[in-house]
Design goal:
The protein is of the alpha+beta class and 270 residues long. The chain has seven helices and 15 strands. It folds into two domains: 130 residues, Fructose-1,6-Bisphosphatase, Chain A, domain 1 (2-Layer Sandwich); 102 residues, 3-Layer(aba) Sandwich (D-Maltodextrin-Binding Protein, domain 2).
Amino acid sequence: MPTTGVPDYTGDMSLPSRAELEAIAARAGAQALQHFRRVTAERKADSSLVTAADREVEAALVAELGALLPDAGILGEEGAAREGRGPYRIVLDPIDGTAAFVAGLGTWCVCIGVLEEARPIAGVVHLPCLGETYSAVGGAACVNGTPLASLGAAGTGGDRFIVTHAHAHRRHRITYPGKVRSLGSTAYHVALVARGVADGALLGHAHLWDLAGPGAILAAVGGGYEYLGGGPVDLGALADGRRAPDYVLAGAPAALAALRPLLGGRTGSP
């Protein structure tokens, strides 16, 4: 698995620009669309779904991003792993929301993240079917090129809602007074929080590849990840591919403090 880098690294490793990362995600999305609604799914060892599109898109992302950041470590959901030199790690979810992809729903996305040690510093969440691209580089976040406001700014004026993992109705006692939605993609859920249209997100026992890319976007607008049981999420602890040990919340700190008592305790296994 990729390392966290070495303190005395002296190589030249500049981050790709926002335009470069968005272009790579767009090409990957176009590649995935060639398979959309014409795939046969398989079950992985953990019972999650995978398709030929997941594997092909990951291979293409590894080739492009690996060339741009030749010293960076790489970790991908479908098995990509490269030891790195220096502080950066590329983290990939080629199709986040594979179940939605297989079902023919348009809420899946291509997810690219770059970590500096354990801190998400760049990311893209690209939804080809919806025509939405969320990105962050250098501490500034955008959706389709329009800067995102800091969390806590005036809302959209629509109905308040949160987004949750698909099994939330069976595993939590939710008393949130607004609407509860589940759209099939962890990364998209986080992006909606960063956009300011969702009050927060209750995620499952997520992996690093679910959290790294959207985490950079969320951090750029003043948000972050916390565990439902309390405490910050250390992304570095998930670098070996393990699941987060608790359900993950995404949002602004004040919003999560208000939401936590409305989301109930755990009532089932991951």
